[in-house]
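Subject: Interface between my chains keeps coming out wrong

I've been trying for a while to get a sensible model of this assembly. When I model each chain on its own everything looks fine, but I need the whole thing in one frame so I can look at the contacts. Pasting all components below, labels as-is. Any help appreciated, I'm running out of ideas.
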Amino acid sequence: MRRRKRLLGAWLIGACWMILGISWQPAGAATAPGSEATEQCLACHADATPGIVADWEKSRHSRITPLDARQIKGLSLKVSSDSIPAKLAPTTVGCAECHLANPDKHPDSYEHNGYQVHTVVTPVDCAVCHVQETDQYKHNIMSHAYGNLMNNPVYRDLMKSVNGDQQMVRGHLEASQATDRTRADSCLSCHGTKVEMTGLVTRDTDFGEMAFPQLTGWPSNGVGRINPDGSQGSCASCHTRHQFSIEVARKPETCGQCHSGPDVPAYKIYKASKHGNLYSSLNGDWNFRTVPWVLGKDFSAPTCAACHVSLVTDAQGSVITRRTHQMTDRLPWRIFGLIYAHPQPKEPDTSGLKNAAGLSLPTDFNGAPALAGLIDQDEQNRRRDVLQNVCLGCHSKNWVDGHWRRFEHTIATADGMTLTATRIMQQIWTRGLAQGLPQHSPFDEAVEKTWVEQWLFFGNSVRYSSAMLGSDYGVFENGRWYQSKNLRELKSWLDFRRQHK
Amino acid sequence: MRRRKRLLGAWLIGACWMILGISWQPAGAATAPGSEATEQCLACHADATPGIVADWEKSRHSRITPLDARQIKGLSLKVSSDSIPAKLAPTTVGCAECHLANPDKHPDSYEHNGYQVHTVVTPVDCAVCHVQETDQYKHNIMSHAYGNLMNNPVYRDLMKSVNGDQQMVRGHLEASQATDRTRADSCLSCHGTKVEMTGLVTRDTDFGEMAFPQLTGWPSNGVGRINPDGSQGSCASCHTRHQFSIEVARKPETCGQCHSGPDVPAYKIYKASKHGNLYSSLNGDWNFRTVPWVLGKDFSAPTCAACHVSLVTDAQGSVITRRTHQMTDRLPWRIFGLIYAHPQPKEPDTSGLKNAAGLSLPTDFNGAPALAGLIDQDEQNRRRDVLQNVCLGCHSKNWVDGHWRRFEHTIATADGMTLTATRIMQQIWTRGLAQGLPQHSPFDEAVEKTWVEQWLFFGNSVRYSSAMLGSDYGVFENGRWYQSKNLRELKSWLDFRRQHK
Amino acid sequence: MRRRKRLLGAWLIGACWMILGISWQPAGAATAPGSEATEQCLACHADATPGIVADWEKSRHSRITPLDARQIKGLSLKVSSDSIPAKLAPTTVGCAECHLANPDKHPDSYEHNGYQVHTVVTPVDCAVCHVQETDQYKHNIMSHAYGNLMNNPVYRDLMKSVNGDQQMVRGHLEASQATDRTRADSCLSCHGTKVEMTGLVTRDTDFGEMAFPQLTGWPSNGVGRINPDGSQGSCASCHTRHQFSIEVARKPETCGQCHSGPDVPAYKIYKASKHGNLYSSLNGDWNFRTVPWVLGKDFSAPTCAACHVSLVTDAQGSVITRRTHQMTDRLPWRIFGLIYAHPQPKEPDTSGLKNAAGLSLPTDFNGAPALAGLIDQDEQNRRRDVLQNVCLGCHSKNWVDGHWRRFEHTIATADGMTLTATRIMQQIWTRGLAQGLPQHSPFDEAVEKTWVEQWLFFGNSVRYSSAMLGSDYGVFENGRWYQSKNLRELKSWLDFRRQHK
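Reply #2:
Try treating it as a single job with all components included. I did that and got this:
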């Protein structure tokens, strides 16, 4: 109750400040002024959600105006939009500049203390200043992560077999599709949920009764979040609110949130690699905030961002690689085996890929790629060269070529181990020891799950390990040991079950 | 030999210093004086155990007297005891102040250079200055970790099946209860051992022959250590000797020592979460030593301590949550499924809980909670509100409510997957394909261990992941993938064994 | 093309600098001069491989001459060679000093801009200044990691079953030995490859056509790399190029690159231990660059290096333990069970060990050690005392003895669990349910792989956990839970297969 009165007081004082034209100033902050609307937000929210406000105070957004930021010359420029709306240019980027932006585009906006506020800030809002990055991100497969999963019947079937409720019904295990809440708590926590406003709810707050939006799929920071305004993605997935720090986005732990499990062990393998070792050992002395990011000076070994996203130059300012938010720009191969490695899809929306058997997969069960939807060799070579340019900043051509030859050899052998497993699995299906396509799910029985792990866990581990020199991830840590063990178990299962039908 | 002479010299010099009244001063330390007794300890131990002394020199204990510490006003006060014994007040807190404290209470004390010293410093000693924290800790389930395991016949049976020696005897695998040493090296390394003094042993040292206590269960820093004085716990589990730093206790790696395995993957899930990502990315700029701990200013994302232990305020000094060393204070649910999630036990001593079947478990095999021993809905609501108050420091009510709804939904679905597994297991027992209760252990056969993993590993992973948004720990990293795979394997096992008895 | 012209210009300017006698100076570097040859390298490579040059600029090598380094007195001396060649002494240690060293010894050297350069810098080159360390390393089992694996028929058989390609041939799974590329990408990524020069290749570069060596097994930083000059090992495995920082070598992540998987989980267990907790929590305040390394002052808890490699003293300069690059110097036991724990081998080349059955293993299948090749009890005691001297820097004799008793007890019980598994496996072989020695591989069938995990994964995890107090790694994290589960699965498999041949 005491807190409530204090908060109410804060709101009143905030209102007075505004009337008197007194500016609220972030602690230890710059001289750049905040907007009146933001000051009004802060007057209450410094008390209501002090963590957010304090975090924002540490951000560059709280210290510089778009006008000043836009005038930075050369490679250090971060504001890529050609023109900034006059209204925004002269004040720092505070609550209001994002949560009140593009009011006509946000079906989830609602009246809040005289302002039309939206909770879900989207790439459309960020694009006001950072249009190049948001445009690139539209072509990033990550921005399509929701539909690529939810609109693909093969993956929906796999999902059902993974996160659906299972119950014994008349002696059989029966699975139902997972609920929205379960999905949001599992697959969609990375892929992103679909956020829609369904209405308003009135709540008693420390400031009296107020109305707030009811949102489906909220909260969500998934990379492919479907926003109420129809846009896809959440910049805050990597540039985490409310510091939006480039430092966070450049650190591998950010990528590691979603690229860490046995299906996609990129982060763990990076950490086990020499690059990860150097990062762990030396990053306290590195500078993660400079733009451009200077190889050797700012950092001594790449993080995920250095190879896949960032603008990297040498100490003389020569560009080693340009910034991209379409990460596949530098990727010739998709080593996340589905169910085999394959050239990157041409389009970020992969739900339309069809393999020879008509399934929504980039390869068929015997490894043949669905070529029509995948980039060709020329494009693979171009992307390889862009990626290797980063390697060549520290390594000789000899080194890089030797590494790459091994990597592509491992793509082939890991796929070979999946093919052998699939041939055994096909015998299991053919002999009726398990029920597969077209009538039944190929993912739901125990022995089928053994087969899935061959490519989804072990093949992926071997390939990612090869890409980054992850040592034991290529052998005993979900690697070749398990590929070979899994094969033998599938074969032993088949042989024994054939004898004992 | 040379070292021995030098050490003997050190002892003599120490004695002279004392006689002459010359104070030993920690390097770079404050002006606050150490006690004579501590100076005598240091004179030898700076040579005998230099690492301990150097570590203590870095501690706040070596720099401030209880008298000064007690006079700190407001929320920054750390010395919670109302009065400090006059003898202790004017000198810093050194070796003697703890290892000579409460001499009449320590059956393990022994004569050492004219002092009655005890090796095992206990919460009784810490309580001299920090009585509030030690009192809270008595109500913490962690302080009962020894008895909760060792006095529970169900868990003893589980332990035997895990860490007991197993040998082939006349064609059968037979397990014996683990030895004390094995227990101390496995379960009790976290839970704590029982430390008792059994006698003295004389050893030839660098200072000549000296007597030392013989202690069972030593060394041990387990959180529920049974001390020779009868008290429970070791403050040094988290406030690690001899810096006793609040920084260490606030860092998640400290909790991670015991909350990291597949049975209780809290630390790993935290690290994979957005909160953990921010901690990993930004903690170099945070301040882990301030009391109170200021949200947003001192830290930008919670560690384990922020949500479960620490006194947290906003920048204006408003209390967001009060300090507690009874961590369950902020926990409505116990998501460490035994074998299902359930409301927290009322009492920290859980060995008396009985389920409907008379087993010492908080739920029965079909999920019904042993209500008499568990907190009720009102208490759950109260604790939820306390916990959510921390969330609300940075997140809107919308966000927190949405998260909580998902979390409680996941508690239900994860329990559902355990129930389905248990129903299959019950069929396996009923049909005599495995030997369960009441005659036999339900934990020792291969197929029973498959079932145990359903709740102890996979159910726990799914629930902890939901609590902290741990992404793949809810799916492929010991999560729903394994829940569903495990179910199918149990069912496949049952079906095949029924056909081939 | 523009870059190419700029690089060519850099080369010309470099040549001019040399002629004019103008020194190239690393940014922010010391006044010590670089050699003319190094300046010529840098003139181009600052552009061609800017990351390497920038990294080297941060090294001590770029700041001090061997002459000055050699004159450092006492324990801080790092240059252990008695005399430094006159030619090297007065300039800093740059590109040329290593890549042009010992030109007559390097079969892989090639003409490059007027210099005879070799790509693969070896311990022979490092020995010019650091002869004591390279001599010690020759006795380190790690320097023999290539041959210890590749020349041991038992391990070659295990390797084939792990990383060989497997295909279905006439209804059978058939494995072939892995290719060189696969080996380099798996086992040999840690063990080291064999690097040989097979010829020269001409490449079009930014500086025109140039010849470069073709090297087999390149790249490689494995600890037992067979170099073109016949030497073994790569100092850069741990002292990573081109900072060669003692900081990196002292941080546990460096060891963790190869000692992290389920076969040898040392790093993960360290991180989960109290020592690792303190490292993770406090290392930002430690000093990893001082020589000697002062216990308590420079660091508050050991890293891998502190216990196994580094020169550690107390604050008074008394030596607690001397530096060694023969890490087994401080190891009485080899707890990496093959297939049981055993006293350390006498010689670093273990390929000649023979057990009672004539197999190249340090123990036989029932646990009896191949005594002739292993150190005796006296040597074990000596090494234990050396190791424990590190422990005693911070812990009492009571503590250390108690810990050690548990550790040796766990060695015995973990071996006991392997023995029981092996007895079951021997029944499986005897009954013809699997095909073992002497005709067939004991490692390639599914059930055999289950048995291998008993010692290679679970036994190792239990032992390493006991050595470092790794909590759950001794129980649920690949520890006793899996030992006991694995036993029950083997037994259940045997019983069921016996009934259903």
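Reply #3:
Confirming on my end. The longest strand of chain A covers residues 197-205.
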